[in-house]
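Q: How would the structure tokens look for this protein?
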Amino acid sequence: MPTMKTAIAPSSYGSRTQALRLALGASVEFLLCAGLLLCVGLTSAGAQELPVELPPRVPAQFMSYQGAGWLERPERVAEEMPDEMLAVMGLEDGDIVADIGVGSGFFTRRMARLVAPSGTVYAVDIQPEMLEILQGYVEEEGLTGIVPVLSEFDDPKLPEGEIDWILLVDVYHEFGNPGAMLAKMREALKRDGRVALLEYRVEDGTGDHIKGDHRMSVRQVLSEWGPAGFELIELHEFLPSQHLFIFQTAAQEGTAGTEPRPVIASYDVLEAISEGLIEVSAAGLGGETVTMTIRRTRPEPMVITLPVGTYFETQGRAIDMIARRDGAIVLFEDGPQTWQVLARSMPPTPSASEPRDRFEIRSADDNIAMRNVMWLFQGLNLHPLVAPVVQQLALWIASEDAGYDDLAEHASGAPIPTEEVVALAVAYLDSSGTDVTQMRIWAERERFVPALTDRGLRSFFETRDQR
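A: Here is the predicted structure in token form.
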């Protein structure tokens, strides 16, 4: 495995990846989807070790009521399959449901028909304008049983112990205080109440048409909902680009005449291997995918996850791989299953890994610099024609201390000038926590910085030089 050759300035790693928006010029804007942040640190001093812990997830900005028309787009039915999704919930006449982050009521109006005539849907939103838009649709469609609720950022304002189902559609990632909201949701649920949570996928790229901070992986969701007192009882992946989680509050014993619902346990892949819960073999599949064959060793449903940055080390060859996304697989049956994880080759070479190549799975924490690069890129919105090249170059600098000549050769395939591709890789690597001023590429910056036409990138290098 490559030796770490990097350091970090002693500023807060979390603030380095959150605080500063770099103004981007026209050539770099070509690379980006709306809302990308290129974050760089503001403080420098002596070098110290990279942080082991990643910063916490930063909540996304909630969508303004001015964008409510997007929630009613005709193609949303095909994209999100609302009728099929609601069928999983099995709503019936008389159910009491809460739709948190209701928006224009795309799902609320459908649920109102399913729980009618005696059921209730609490339509919860923090924007009074959204509730006004919802009311217009309710009156137009002649619906009943919908109760608008103007909530707060940390309180959905729901009645305690009365809710059969809470629905959260692509909104949880926007909660500014998720811990407080989850606690209030637990209080609102009946003893056997459930939550349906939808979030756009990180793992396989099917959610990549959505901004990076509006997507969540299975690993991210379970890491937050489990400690908040919720248990996973179902995980569905039939939707085109969204996860569908079904949760209940912990330690449910069922109601009279019903059996307790089975809970799906969640394990990190290395944890599950060490405890003998699974058997796994990993092999190469080209330069961007690792294929794993996985089998559970005991008859219990389980979710296996791996973190972005997990390292796959080949035996006898120089082409290793590193996971560029969180991964997850649900094991409901005995026998082997195939699990494909998006990855990058390390270092980049013309000969990608082949199916006969076998990997040893190493912890993401074995190389913190590379892990941090992959974590940063998992949440970015770089243009797909450029993102792989920039990410690969940043990894190469982090793992091999690569110089400009090697980087330029691999940057030439991107649809923007080579100098700007290399500069982007350097800037992103620095924002992930690596002090690039300690790297060989920094000593060679005069070979590419003078050619930069983008003011934002030039500003980054000028500012970094002044620290």
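Residues 268-365 form one domain.

The chain has a mean pLDDT of 86.

Upvote if useful.
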